[in-house]
Amino acid sequence: MYELALKRGTEWLAIGGLRPTRQRVALASLLVGDGEDRHVTAESLFAASTKSGEGVSLATVYNTLRAFCEAGLMQEVVVDGSKSYFDTRMDDHPHFYWEDTCELTDAPVDQLEITRLPDLPAGTEIAKVDVVIRLRKV
After folding, report:
1. Which residues form a coiled coil (predicted)?
2. What is the mean pLDDT of each successive set of 10 residues along the chain, which is 138 residues long?
3. What is the torsional sign of CA 56, 61, 65, 70?
């Protein structure tokens, strides 16, 4: 299983045109090694890398996540203007943010309908529309 995770991580880096350094391969393997999509924070990925025995600093995790985003391998989802989650699923889709657990999960894209957006200021274009639906248990 570990070899398959390393292979998937290395192939994922190649898709983004990134050099497969030891740290990048280790983090990529944690993110995509099992073939599942992930929503991680830098801190949660750092904890997973520490648990797996990889010697990767938190600063390296932050820098690597930014490099993955710049390479088009992940997208950043900002919650509350300061909390960043990194998503390996790259298609346009909404998210649920669970306030009680501070967890970000995918919401059903087929149930979301945006029928109209506000008029844009002159000289601008939409770069992206993020939909984060905040939830709390009742």
Report:
1. none
2. 88 96 95 94 96 91 97 94 92 95 95 95 94 93
3. negative
Indicate the SS3 state at residue 110.
helix
Say how many CA atoms lie within 13 Å of 65 toward its Cβ. Answer: 26
State whether residue 122 is helix, strand or coil.
coil
Q: Phi-psi bin for 72: left (phi > 0), alpha (psi -120 to 50), beta?
A: left
- Give pTM, 2 decimals: 0.90
How far is CA 133 from its chain centroid? Answer: 17
Answer for the pair 36, 42: CB distance below 8 angstroms, yes or no.
no
The token pair that represents 57 in the structure block: 């600093």
Q: Say what percent of the chain tops pLDDT 90.
A: 86
* Calpha distance 122→22 (Å, rounded): 46
| Secondary structure of residue 88 in the 3-state scheme | coil
